[in-house]
Automatic annotation (TrEMBL):
The lineage of its organism: Bacteria, Bacillati, Actinomycetota, Actinomycetes, Kitasatosporales. This is Glycosyltransferase. Residues 47-67, 76-91 have a biased composition (Low complexity). Residues 44-91, 396-425 are annotated as: Disordered. It comes from the Bacteria.
Length: 425
């Protein structure tokens, strides 16, 4: 007997999803919402939520629980304030159904932000399926088995991280001929460059040959996924698109659409501005690129120079590092419960935002256009790099800074403590 189709809240039959999106981070989910908004949306903006797709057996209750953030003691979330009033809802044109699959990571801060973003996605009328994809040795098999029917039915696949082994494995099971890559931050720049050069997909900060035992076992799946992410010759049935706010040039056959954060600007703000500056944190220490002591010294000097009072921590920054930062700099450390683009748009936010090379130097000027907020980026001094940093690290970070539009550029010297004068000076 055939299994009956699910019923939507209004009693209509819920058809199998034509578009399937895979996300592993809050920023990826935000950019899926921006892409859906530009495409016409999959439901009314701020309207009734579509029913959630059924989760795999054993999925955690947190997937549908009210969102909250329980960060470390140095992370007061209250300073972000409540959401600003949204503009009146507008009906979006009818569009194909969108199901967003959250491949949940282990990190509790990332999971917390993903829960909040999932709520926003449901409010937009999208279906959200939470997968505890890394919850034990059998979780990957359970997740892949549960997603296989959706992958076979999907006409279009949207992914947030083409470097993800999980996503690459799922792509080998998909039949969709239309693939879309939405921004996963500055990694999109490296993805486009590697795609254009015909190279294997490797994250820019990864150090090593990529020929370890796990790499060799996974190599066939990685090659298959890379073929799926390469558009077919002219006239072929396979298409690839990229939805990005990064300064990227399309390789032959790849469609590029610009992410101007239209949904974010319409949904939130404009923010109230404070007199003090804010500093945006980065995970360059956690990824082994920048030395911890050098980083803390640079943050302290930037705070003194620009009168900063708050430090917005990256979701992957370690608690011990943030405790030390708060103690040594006097900055108030804030662990946001949403991506910084939404936090800044809601406000309150400083009139000046200072960051090291990262995604936000490209996205914040777009999200905050017309608000009067200045964004400045401080270059990374080569002396700050660790011995474990990838040989490509400095060039990539320089490229991130040099291609940012609408930002002030600060030299590394601005974040370096000046040498004390000698007795003869």
């Amino acid at each position: 007997m055939p299994r009956p189709r699910d019923r939507a809240a209004n009693g209509a039959t819920a058809l199998p999803p034509a578009t399937l999106a895979f996300v592993e981070s809050p920023v990826q989910l935000l950019n899926v919402l921006e892409w859906a908004y530009e495409e016409g949306g999959a439901g009314p903006l701020g309207g009734a939520s579509a029913p959630d797709a059924p989760a795999a057996p054993g999925a955690p209750a947190e997937a549908t629980a009210p969102a909250h953030t329980s960060g470390p003691p140095v992370a007061p979330g209250h300073v972000c304030g409540p959401p600003a009033a949204a503009a009146p809802p507008e009906r979006a044109p009818a569009a194909t159904a969108l199901t967003i699959v959250v491949l949940s990571p282990h990190d509790p801060m990332t999971r917390g932000q993903l829960r909040r973003m999932a709520e926003l996605a449901r409010e937009e009328g999208h279906s959200v399926r939470w997968e505890d994809a890394r919850g034990g040795a059998t979780a990957p098999l359970r997740t892949i088995g549960g997603l296989a029917p959706l992958l076979r039915r999907a006409e279009r696949i949207v992914i947030g991280d083409p470097f993800s082994r999980y996503v690459q494995l799922l792509l080998t099971l998909a039949r969709a001929r239309d693939l879309v890559v939405v921004d996963d931050g500055t990694a999109t720049m490296e993805f486009i460059a590697q795609l254009a050069r015909g190279e294997r997909l490797v994250r820019w900060h990864r150090h090593g040959s990529g020929r370890g035992a796990r790499d060799l076992v996974f190599a066939p799946f990685a090659r298959a996924a890379r073929r799926r992410l390469t558009p077919a010759p002219e006239g072929g049935r396979r298409t690839v698109g990229v939805f990005s706010s990064m300064p990227v040039e399309a390789p032959p056959g790849v469609r590029i659409a610009t992410n101007a954060f239209a949904w974010t600007r319409r949904r939130f703000g404009p923010p109230r501005l404070t007199r003090a500056a804010d500093i945006v944190g980065t995970s360059l220490v956690e990824t082994g690129v920048v030395d911890l002591d050098r980083y803390l010294a640079a943050v302290a000097q930037l705070a003194r120079t620009h009168g900063a009072t708050r430090y917005f921590a990256h979701r992957r920054e370690h608690t011990d590092k943030l405790h030390r930062l708060a103690t040594e700099t006097g900055l108030e450390v804030v662990r946001p419960d949403l991506p910084l683009e939404l936090i800044a748009r809601r406000g309150p936010i400083g009139r000046l935002i200072v960051s090291f090379p990262s995604t936000v130097v490209h996205t914040l000027p777009l999200a905050l256009v017309g608000t009067g907020v200045r964004v400045a980026v401080c270059d990374v001094d080569p002396a700050w790099l660790t011995s474990r940093a990838s040989p490509r690290a400095q060039g990539f970070l320089d490229d991130v800074t040099g291609t940012a539009r609408g930002v002030d550029r600060l030299p590394p010297e601005s974040a370096t403590e000046p040498e004390p004068p000698t007795a003869t000076e």
